[in-house]
Design a protein that fits this description.
189 residues; mainly alpha; cytokine
Length: 189
């Protein structure tokens, strides 16, 4: 019995020592964008419901016209050929933009409707950031990506909040498509 307790003590000490050699944060960090390759239909329906409610109830309440066409990118070979890290950075910026706009104060009925899409986008952005930290921690954006990011930043400074909110909500499916393409590693055109 004493020998069994001694062996158990040795195993516990070795296990604790090995646990210190491999920190748990290092073991758990993986890039898991695969769940965004094909989005769950109920999530897509929630986004569609939110867009419809926005168009029916809120869009007509104020002027939401924009001078900048943020999501009307030409799909030329030059923009379609972003590297995988560039595409991840672009999707992260798009998700940040959409999350910020969905987080704006809204009538209670719309705030309730947008909660599920907001949760989806927030989880996707967090997963994307984890992947960026693992896959390309020191990646520098290309000239093409810098141009697209600058366009987004300029719009944030020059357009009205109503315009930006409408742009984000009405282009959520394009943002989700960009996320799916990044998750698959596709060159979406």
């Amino acid at each position: 019995m004493l020998g069994l307790n001694f062996i158990l003590l040795i195993v516990l000490l070795l296990g604790a020592g090995l646990g210190d050699a491999f920190p748990s944060d290092t073991l758990k960090k993986t890039c898991s964008l695969s769940k965004y390759q094909f989005l769950v239909p109920r999530e897509l329906k929630a986004v569609q419901k939110m867009q419809k409610q926005f168009e029916d109830d809120i869009m007509r309440l104020s002027d939401r016209k924009c001078r900048t066409l943020l999501f009307h990118r030409r799909r030329s070979p030059a923009t379609a050929e972003l590297s995988v890290p560039d595409r991840l950075m672009l999707v992260e910026a798009e998700l940040d933009f959409a999350i910020t706009m969905l987080g704006l104060p809204a009538p209670s009925r719309f705030a309730e409707t947008r909660q599920r899409p907001l949760d989806l986008l927030t989880h996707a952005r967090d997963d994307l950031r984890d992947c960026m930290a693992i896959e390309a921690p020191s990646h520098q954006p290309s000239r093409k990506l810098r141009h697209q990011l600058q366009k987004l930043e300029t719009a944030r400074k020059t357009e009205t909040t109503g315009c930006l909110e409408a742009t984000a909500i009405l282009h959520l499916f394009q943002i989700l498509n960009d996320l799916q393409c990044a998750a698959r590693g596709d060159q979406c055109t």
